[in-house]
Amino acid sequence: MAQIPIESMNLMLLNVGRAQHNADWNWQDVSSPFSRIYYVIEGEALLHLPGQDIKLCPRRMYIIPAYTVHSYECHGVFVHYYLHVYEGFKNEMNIQEVYELPTEVDGSKTAEHLFEFLCEQLPNARLPHSNPNTYDTSAQTSGYVQRYLDMALWEKMELRGAMLMIMSHFIHHATPRIWTKDERMKHVLEYIHSHISESIDVDTLASIGCVTKSYLIKLFKRDFGTSPIQYINKKKVERAQLLLFTTDKAVKEIAYMLGFSDQNYFVRLFRKVTDITPQEYRRRAWAKA
Higher-confidence residue: 90 or 177? Predict the structure, then answer.
């Protein structure tokens, strides 16, 4: 069972605020590279997720993982706190790769005070508008990331502490994902995540797992349901999506940063995984602006 050391939970705060709506929170097919956390204060709304609809109710907290396509439906007064959390700036496995988090948990006075604290500390982190098309863009997200990076260390420590306490409400009811009981495969998986920005070959993984190449592939498929190369490529493409969304680096530079010496191969791989090219992915992100 994989575990995340507390020091590896590198959460980055992008946005936080208190929003009040009256039948005007109705956005369709929203998807972002960051996770959303809501604390409902008053009223009700509907959250449409793949395969399920959830009623958002007062004194409850909700989390929507990054890249989850979802929609909102609101027919009356709806007041809530929101927090946008980004985990994509480090190579470690993120929280939701290790834990199956519940979408909905009970709120608490402590959590409500933490949201109030974050809003008071970062009034400029409030969204300019509730329409995702106005803030969920490459340019905007890049600016939010830079704002966080420019903060003093003590400010980041305060924010991180508050975010971890909020996240603890979900972790308390989370189910650890059983990646593998095989210590060899644990070491292999940890190596992949810590070296995802480098070129990774199966021979190296076999050496780390102290098994032959063919046996490594067999064990990896048994435990993770895919081949080592397919898993690595998926993680590299996810990292590329984050870089395309949050930076203006050229596609060639991103390919190089992820260990690809052949840009054309990187573009073909990206298209195979996402059905669009890196250039088209970035164009669509910027088209929202």
Answer: 177
**Average pLDDT estimate for 116-135:** 86
Residue 263 has what pLDDT? Answer: 93
Task: For 152-167, write each residue's pLDDT tens digit.
Answer: 999 999 999 999 999 9
Where in the sequence of the chain do the CATH 1.10.10.60 domains occur? 183-287
| Token output for 143 | 């600016």
The residues pairing with 56 across neighbouring beta strands, listed in sequence order, are: 45
* Encoded tokens for 251: 């596609």
CA–CA dist 23, 99 (Å, integer): 34
Range with lowest mean pLDDT among 71-80, 113-122, 142-151, 231-240:
142-151
Q: How many Cα neighbours within 13 Å face the side chain of 28?
A: 0
The CATH architecture one would assign to domain 6-176 is: Sandwich (2.60)
The pTM assigned to this predicted structure is: 0.71
pLDDT tens for 208-264 read 999 999 999 999 998 888 899 999 998 899 888 878 877 778 999 999 999 998 999
Portions of the chain given CATH number 2.60.120.10 = 6-176
Could you please report the per-residue DSSP string of the chain?
A: -----GGG---EEEEEEEEEEES-----SB--SSEEEEEEEEE-EEEEETTEEEEE-TTEEEEE-TT--BEEE--SEEEEEEEEEE-TTSSSPPHHHHEE--SEEE--HHHHHHHHHHHHH-GGGS-S-S-HHHHSSHHHHHHHHHHHHTS-HHHHHHHHHHHHHHHHHHHTT-EE----S-HHHHHHHHHHHHTTTS---HHHHHHHHTS-HHHHHHHHHHHHSS-HHHHHHHHHHHHHHHHHHH----HHHHHHHTT-S-HHHHHHHHHHHHSS-HHHHHHHHHHT-
Q: Which CATH class is domain 183-287?
A: mainly alpha
